[in-house]
Amino acid sequence: MSYMHKNLAEGRWYNLSLAEQLANIGTEAGRAAKWQGKDEKSFDGAVARALELFDLTLEDSRWRGRALEIGRLKEVFCDGVLGGKEYNTDLKDLDRYFYPFMNMVASKYMAQ
User: Fold this and answer.
1) Which residues of the chain have pLDDT under 50?
2) How far is CA 6 from the centre of its chain?
């Protein structure tokens, strides 16, 4: 399989905490929200990268007990990508879920 996040797929992803993984997914989800309906190429790229990061997170054996939550989050993200037909999801609404992880990670790195 060919990965867009090659260095992450080769093992670096599995050294990140769940908060760091979700913050990275949230960054791509935010990019997708920004470009949805404006720039199809940028939107599609962000969606593909987010889905790859979701898959890497689901493959991480440390989070087996969280697989349902992560899988549901991926499902809700996909609903937003496809126009919110199932759950009325707007990709911009996912920021409320991802921001705490982004802030946690940012504060961790600012403290170093």
Assistant:
1) none
2) 16
